[in-house]
Amino acid sequence: MSIFEQLESEVRSYCRGWPVVFDRASGSRIYAEDGRPYLDFFAGAGALNYGHNNPVLKQALIDYLARDGVTHALDMFTAAKRDLLVTLEEKIFAPRELSYRVVFPGPGGTNAVEAALKLARKVTGRKQVVHFTNGFHGMTLGALSATGNSLHRRGAGVPLVHATPMPFDRYFDDSFPYLGYFERLLDDPGSGLDEPAAVIVETVQGEGGINAASAEWLRGLQELCRSHGILVIVDDVQMGCGRTGPFFSFEDAGIEPDLVCLSKSIGGYGLPMALTLIKPELDVWEPGEHNGTFRGVSPAFVTAAEALRVYWSDDELEKSTRAKGERVGIGLQNVVERFPEAGLVAKGRGLARGLEFSGGELAGQVCAAAFERGLLLETSGPGGEVVKLLPPLTLTDAEVDEGLEIIAESVKSALVGGR
């Protein structure tokens, strides 16, 4: 592995916790060069909801490439883009009675966020954006300004402006009137809070520590924003595409955001792709006002459309994700109860789950012990104190049980020692 240390930047991250060279992957497993399999509860940070090298999506991609389908097309009309848009309308928008136009902002989630922030400011004529404690929205400057993590923010090297943090649901304790605080600032002309163009929110904060907002809080937030002419942006980059059960993570709350950011698993196969969904009345862009070279990566359109047809023509995946999520939640709660003195907390929704420790050192030790046992996990939270589980939605019940058993063993190893 010396070539990586010789040539690759020190900014590399995940590979430090998993110091092997991976070579192939299938379903819920990824294999090192020596052939050792690892059960993957990381899933490309949520970019592989349908598993590694999903055979149905792979075949659609191979067929498209074999017939010399267009690979790169900027924002030109292509058959692949048409198929994706038709499938989005038929499988996602129409059944949910949603009306959105689709912006192709670039290849990554931060591109989707940047487009949403820019458009919200253009539509409202306001500069300020409200974001929430422990939120994560991307690494480019606009998205980073709305991100809470101090390590990431320091990396900007310049002041991050026109963004104001507010407490996320249950940031302090259940008695604190979170939205009341926000509402008071909006109503008080002496508060110093300029009228925001938008709020940007994750319904479940992935990088922030698997913090799940309640449906009541999300509905209250939308109502408050509506009353003040503030646009609601839901960042569904990691929690969308079925991660919490329904296709959009906000569906259970019954809200309808003005703008929605999608990436990661929207491409289906792990190929780079992002979408910003906008209410039709917000579509005030001038032609070319927001663009980018890699807006039209057609192979991702192909696998995205195929994933929507295969997995979202009915509610089977949603029901499966909810059921498996409950199994994982119960399994993590069993770990909590097994070690009551450790003060562990099981968190999450659907197949976005977490186990919170007293600090990042313990959580890191659990992930390291899990890796030794053949399971990939990462940490999240402001201090890396949460062991984060994002397995493929297509994993089997047996793989759920296997992963939970390894997690229990790894927690025991970290808390009481031994192997």
From TrEMBL:
It comes from the Bacteria. Its cofactor is pyridoxal 5'-phosphate. Pfam families: Aminotran_3. GO terms for biological process: ectoine biosynthetic process. Its EC number is 2.6.1.76. It is an enzyme of class 2 (transferase). NCBIfam families: dat, ectoine_ectB, PRK09264.1. Belongs to the class-III pyridoxal-phosphate-dependent aminotransferase family. This is Diaminobutyrate--2-oxoglutarate transaminase.
